[in-house]
Amino acid sequence: MKGYVQVYTGDGKGKTTAALGLAIRAVGAGYKVFIGQFIKMGEYSEIKALKERFSDMVTIEQFGSGRFVKGTPTPEQIELARKGIERIQSVMVSGEFQVIILEEANIAVSLGLLSSEQLLALIDTKPKNVELVFTGRNAPDFLMNKADLVTEMKEIKHYFKKGVRARTGIEK
Q1: Given this model, what pLDDT does residue 73 score?
Q2: Which segments of the chain have a pLDDT < 70?
Q3: What is the CATH number of the domain that holds 39?
Q4: Which residues contact 137 (CB under 8 A, 6 or more apart)?
């Protein structure tokens, strides 16, 4: 398999869902998947399902503090992201995984948790057989220019604006 760089971005719902759909498709083809989550922390329904049903093919690690970053990130949050990108770099070159998903990496860059240099270094050292996927709003221009595939999810209408909270099994 020749691997490419994919980006799922935009203000609409479905970025993580698209990446997880890709993960399930990859598992069905016999590929191993690594998912590194930036910012998020906890047992979301999708994480629970993947861990329980595909633990032999999907590895998920979280590199966030579990608190949303407002303003300037704390040194602790930056350190968690740095350790996460280092972990993903080592996993990527290990040869064990064919699909690597960096969930919310786009947001991590826009918030100052990760640098453009860190993501570019990751892309530049990507083995030819690894599919590298970045998700999150606000994908930086440098990443979209470097990617082979960019999909933007555009919000047209969302029930959240009518006060509907994130529902277990649908949004979380």
Answers
A1: 87
A2: 41-42, 66-69
A3: 3.40.50.300
A4: 9, 10, 11, 15, 106, 107, 110
- As given in the structure block, the two tokens for residue 147 are 């990617």
User: Which pTM value belongs to this model?
Assistant: 0.93
Site of tokens 């979280």: 62
Q: How many domains does the chain have?
A: 1
Q: What domain range includes position 78?
A: 5-129
**Contact status, residue 35 vs residue 87, Cβ threshold 8 Å:** no
In a domain, 163, yes or no: no
DSSP state, residue 5: E
Per-residue model confidence (pLDDT) at position 38: 93
Report residue 138 as tokens: 């606000």
Residue 161 falls inside a structural domain: no
In the chain, which residue ranges form alpha helices assigned H by DSSP?
Answer: 15-28, 45-53, 75-94, 105-110, 116-124, 141-146
